[in-house]
Design a protein that fits this description.
Layout lengths: L2 E8 L3 H7 L6 E8 L5 H11 L4 E5 H7 L8 E5 L3 H13 L7 E5 L2 H10 L7 E5 L6 H15 L4 E3 L2 H7 L5 E3 L4 H22 L2 E8 L8 H13 L8 E6 L2 E7 H7 L7 H9 L4 E7 L3 H16 L5 E6 L3 E6 L8 E3 L3 H11 L3 H14 L6 H8 L3 H13 L3 E7 L8 E6 L1 H7 L5
Helix pairs in contact: 1-8, 4-5, 6-7, 13-14, 15-16
């Protein structure tokens, strides 16, 4: 499957992005180039309307302008300048004969500014930082720089906003600390690899087992199974699947994992369970298995269907050969539960090191897989695990202390109040790197 990545950039940045993309092969790039920020939203909308994108790379401003337009299943990377880019800006200032401090900086995270100031042995008290806030206007950022320059006599300012640089021209010297080719290249390659991994996962072979749950010894199982078979065959979502009899109580369905993800709304619900009960008067239990072979897939699906039969209502489960279990899925949207069939020594060891239970760490690892590289807030983490917000924040702190999560941004949904910090889970990489419990 072809990989198509959209790039949303300011016109002045195209050269550096083209340089960064030179080493990327097997990917078709679709460019959205804008001069003014009010052009971003309609141009992104036009791109989404004409192209079936695999992923999208864009900066913080374009992301804030078009976030509600982006499909939920689209792989997205939001580029941010790193500490290296800020350090280069300081060296450029020194090369021009400017004092390193005092200086005002916008858009960078305070943590990045702290890290660079400490590494360059700068007086942090002489460095003013205005973090990115999608609700903050260009005029407010410009006023921040001008006020700081008037108050301190700073030689220059550092900005990531092209519009801010243009507004300050002639009044305050500005260095644009735009991410360089190395930062962009790393983001592009990471996004392409994430898309490839997702496509490969979606193309994996999978099996589904649908069972009629017997509640009456006199029930006509053959008639119920034939009714179930006809229901599945006549369901458009199963048109590309292979469906055959399993035994008197049910049928087995073979398809790519992507098909089952679609019919279950990404493993959240399975409407056909409710349809079978309403139209045929039968209660179903369904199980899905994803493995390296057809035999393994069917075995896992049978195990999952057996687990679903234990529920008091029609439901379904997924079991993967990696050990992930998701369920129960019902006829309507319901929260997911994540666990592992066998925690294994690596999980147990990492859990002990982090001061967590193996079950909690397994649920976090499964949640990380479902996020597919996206960032998560403490409140969203809490909601996904079914715990309170304070517990979610405490869990984030514990994960941070163990190096299992990194803070990589923030968002502010309302004008008032503090921005919400966003984090990237790193449990999968930690498990891969661990060969023995510590």
């Amino acid at each position: 499957m072809a990989i198509v990545i959209g790039l949303v950039i300011h016109a002045s940045h195209r050269t550096v992005f083209e340089e960064a993309a030179r080493t990327l092969s097997g990917v078709r790039l679709e460019w959205v180039v804008y001069e003014h920020e009010d052009e971003i939203r309609p141009r992104v909308q036009e791109l989404l309307g004409r192209e079936q994108l695999s992923g999208l790379l864009l900066g913080q401003v374009p992301f804030a302008k078009s976030r509600d337009l982006l499909p939920a299943d689209l792989s997205v990377t939001v580029t941010k300048s790193a500490g290296f880019d800020l350090s280069i800006a300081f060296f450029r200032a020194l090369a021009r004969g400017w004092r390193a401090t005092p200086v005002s900086i916008d858009t960078f995270d305070p943590e990045t500014v702290d890290e660079v100031a400490q590494a360059l042995q700068l007086d942090r008290g002489q460095v003013a930082c205005l973090p990115y806030n999608p609700e903050r206007s260009v005029e407010e950022v410009v006023d921040f720089h001008r006020a700081f320059q008037e108050r301190t006599g700073a030689d220059y300012a550092i900005s990531l906003r092209t519009a801010v640089t243009a507004r300050l021209a002639g009044s305050v010297p500005v260095l644009n600390a735009l991410y360089g080719p190395a930062t962009i290249r790393a983001n592009l390659h990471e996004l392409a690899l994430r898309i490839q991994s997702r496509q490969a996962s979606a193309s994996r072979f999978a099996a589904g087992v649908f069972l009629v749950v017997t509640q009456d010894a006199q029930a006509d199982l053959d008639r119920a199974r034939i009714g179930l078979m006809n229901l599945l065959v006549n369901t458009p979502e199963f048109s590309d699947a292979w469906i055959e009899n399993r035994d008197r109580r049910g049928v087995v369905v073979f398809a790519h994992k992507a098909l089952f993800e679609h019919v279950t709304h990404n493993w959240v619900s399975l409407p056909i369970l409710g349809q079978a009960q309403e139209a045929l008067g039968i209660r179903l239990a369904a199980g899905f298995g994803v493995g390296a072979s057809a035999r393994t897939c069917v075995q896992l699906a049978e195990w999952a269907a057996s687990r679903a039969e234990q529920e008091s209502a029609p439901s379904a489960y997924l079991v993967e050969d990696s050990g992930v279990i998701i369920g129960p899925m019902s006829g309507v949207a319901s929260p997911l539960a994540f666990t592992y069939r066998d925690h294994g020594g690596d999980v147990e060891g990492l859990a002990r090191r982090a001061g967590l239970s193996a079950a909690t760490l397994s649920r976090l690892a499964a949640l990380e897989r479902s996020l597919e590289g996206r960032l998560i807030s403490p409140s969203d983490l809490a909601a996904s695990l079914g715990i309170t917000d304070p517990s979610g924040r405490r869990l984030i702190r514990k994960l941070s202390e163990s190096g299992l999560v990194t803070e990589e941004g923030s968002e502010q949904m309302h004008r008032k109040g503090r921005p919400t910090r966003l984090y990237r889970l790193g449990i999968g990489s930690a498990l891969t790197g661990e060969t023995s419990p510590s």
